[in-house]
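Researcher: We're teaching a course module on how sequence relates to structure. For the next exercise, students receive a sequence and then see the predicted structure as tokens, so they can try to spot secondary structure elements on their own. Here is the exercise chain.
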Amino acid sequence: MEDMVINGEPVAEAIADDPFSQTRLFKQDVATAAKKRKRVKQNVMGWLFSMWPFVGYCLFGLIPFALSIVLSMAELHNFDITEFTFVGFANYKWIFTDPKGEFWFSLRQTLYYCLSLPIGIVLGMGTAVLLTRHVKLTKLFRTILFIPNVCSVVGVSMMWKLVFNEQYGVINTIIAACGGKHINFLGDEHWFMPIIIFTTTWGAGAGSILFQAALEQVNRSLIEAAEIDGASSTKIFFNVTLPAISPTTFYVLTMNTIGALQAMANIQILASDGKRPLDSKTGNSVALTAVYFIYWMAFNDPYQYGLGKASAAAWILAILIVIVTRINFKLGDYWVCYDN
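Model: And here is the predicted structure for the students to work with:
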């Protein structure tokens, strides 16, 4: 095959006579090596930036995850992990056979607390319906509704603790002014959990914002068709609007259920001495929800219960949350409508 010719000269001779042919700029292997080094440098920088979330997950997620499995089968009453004693499934057995049934009582209180879910959803949906009817100062009302969700849980709980204080609280002051007797809202076993539910539903603004966004995306042609057919506003809401926003309802229900099963912070602050009031029949704490009871066993009273029992209870609660969530998703197939 004949050599290529440039200006009447073979290519090889033309390159040899070119004074730049010996420079680094004209060497293909050098350019390829430079590209490889640049690519390696970019890959290294990418790995360095992306590894920190993984390191954080290992330190604060994966390692505690594995450690909790080990501790759930061990007896440990302090924070020196080298002193733990392997006991097998004894901690799980204690939870199921405890004569006082403290964990199951705390789980019952958690389910009682979950009554705040339907109340919060109804309030959130109701305020969303009102605010999507083109009322004045809509943005202001949205801001007011959402403010409780951006406030500190500790600060808000301390506020409610002052409001319901037996001696100088606002509510008892009003009751006394009306001629009534002071009520120990946070110290009475019958009043405590209803007050907790009330203070929780006060922060239903986040659900309201989500419902407002969903209501604005409802297909107007479906509503107009129902109006032409003579359907009332109530029928339109329950047969057209409610199915159209069912995915948002499902999301709010699922996330709030998981959050309710893990409730602790506001209850811990509002409880008297962290644990009172006590149930008159069993002597168990009315304030101890499942997560709060796990925290109490591990950090407030480790010498009586220990980190092993707390870890075992945490795993049982985690399994129950997974089961409840799975059931929720399964039931969602029957009422959630993704066609708008």
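Model: If you want an answer key for the exercise: Residues 28-71 form the longest helix (44 residues). The first strand starts at residue 5 and ends at 6.
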